[in-house]
Amino acid sequence: AVELVESGGGSVEAGASLTLSCTAPDYILRYCEMGWYRQTPGKERELVSESHIREGRFTVSLHYEEKLMLLQMTTLTPADTARYYCAAERCWSTATSYWGPGTQVNVSL
Q1: pLDDT for res 51
Q2: Which of 85, 76, 68 is nearest to 106 (CA)?
């Protein structure tokens, strides 16, 4: 079974930076569209960023030898508080997708 596992979450103060990690088999990193999502209670899960994209405060990178996908986040605010999920989607150009259990990020003032 394919397993994605996130780590690196925790509690930080506003303005801090945090890097989340997702471990995944290298064939998943190579043949799926990798990305990070986040969700807060009562809200829809939203896309944070996809692989090899730097969007403002968020940068996603793939590291095939280490079998990792990273999400580097800077200048965090309380609005970034959420559970963050690693996602592997449209694997092998099919509807197959895999998700990790998530890691919680809490940002306080």
Answers
A1: 80
A2: 76
**What gap in Å lies between CA 109 and CA 91, rounded to an integer?**
39
Which stretches of the chain score pLDDT less than 50? Answer: none
According to DSSP, residue 27 is labeled H
Measuring CA to CA, which residue among 61, 51, 53, 55 is closest to residue 74? Answer: 55
pLDDT of residue 62: 94
Q: Which residues are registered as beta bridge partners of 7?
A: 21
Reading the block at residue 47, the tokens are 């896309």
Please count the CA atoms within 13 angstroms of the CA of 91 that sit on its side-chain side: 14
Q: How many other CB atoms are there within 10 angstroms of residue 80's CB atom?
A: 21
Question: Residue 88 — φ and ψ, nearest 5°?
Answer: -120, 110
Do residues 91 and 4 make contact, with C-beta atoms less than 8 angstroms apart?
no
Q: How far apart are CA 38 and CA 24, in angstroms?
A: 18
